[in-house]
Design brief:
274 residues; mainly beta; Immunoglobulin-like; 2 domains; four-stranded mixed β-sheet; 2 helices; 12% helix
Length: 274
């Protein structure tokens, strides 16, 4: 009886061993141990900021030793923040049928990207009785994110409430891609004279490139009023140290003095960029 049991155990062990070997061989034959490969062109990809994400896949191919061509499975995994304005890195990923993942990166250049810009909702001349609110006066817009006024930050200011004078304000804003711009402006706080001319401008802030032709600053005047009544005839003095050959921020001052001695003052801020 014992011999029969020993023989049965030996037979069972042999069968199990053979099954294990067979399974191991089958597993080696059927299991995909190859990794997929993503092929990325060496030259940077150039697209518009308005192009859909699918455009980022242009020129990308992927293959797998078992599954063959799997280009249609490639996805855009992530887009980095800018390395420099308008240039970032795209990371691609692909997975084969056995859940093996491959990744690759490529440089992406937006051909029509421009850095964010500040804009002004009003002239930065305040009555001494007004409350200055820079976030109400200054906003920012971006070609990718749209209006980013809520991201405008005041870095520094020497403004003193209810005090006449000229005050400095330093601002910054960043878009979602990490492009940060700065703006140094001056705020004028003056006496409250109800009969002083009010000089409204078509724009309160403009951007120019270095070397641009000097604008016709008088053309920025929208209207001049006194106590709500539009003035048709007035003498205007325009004063500025503007130099389009030197990047920086400039103020263009508009002055009107009435025959009764009341003076109106308005400011156009001009930013000259490289």
């Amino acid at each position: 009886m014992i011999k029969i049991l020993q023989k049965a155990i030996m037979i069972l062990f042999a069968v199990t061993f053979v099954a294990f070997v067979a399974f191991s061989i089958a597993d080696r034959i059927t299991t995909d141990r190859t990794e997929p490969t993503i092929t990325v062109p060496q030259e940077p990809l150039k697209i518009s900021i308005h192009d859909p994400e699918e455009k980022m896949l242009a020129g990308i191919t992927a293959t797998d030793g078992k599954d063959g061509d799997i280009t249609d499975k490639v996805i855009v995994e992530s887009v980095s923040k800018f390395i420099r304005p308008g240039v970032c890195m795209v990371t691609y990923a692909v997975m084969d049928n056995d859940n093996h993942v491959a990744k690759a990166t490529r440089t992406l250049e937006y051909t029509d990207y421009t850095s964010p810009e500040f804009y002004m909702r009003r002239v930065l001349v305040y009555s001494v009785e007004e409350e200055m609110d820079i976030h109400e006066a200054v906003g920012a817009r971006d070609c990718i994110d749209g209006d980013i006024s809520d991201k405008v930050t005041v870095l520094a200011t020497d403004y003193v409430e209810n005090t006449p004078g000229v005050f400095n304000v330093s601002l910054q804003v960043s878009n979602s891609m990490g492009d940060t711009i700065f703006l140094d402006i001056t705020v004028h706080v003056e006496g409250n004279e109800t009969m002083a001319p009010q000089i409204a401008l078509k724009k309160s802030l403009i951007y120019l490139k270095k070397g641009d032709q000097r604008p016709d600053f008088e053309s920025f005047i929208k209207e001049v009023t006194i106590d709500g009544v539009v003035m048709k005839d007035y003498g205007m003095l325009i004063s500025t140290n503007f130099d389009s050959n030197v990047p920086g921020t400039y103020n263009v001052h508009y002055y009107i003095t009435t025959t009764t001695g009341y003076e109106g003052h308005s400011i156009l801020t001009v930013v000259v960029e490289e």
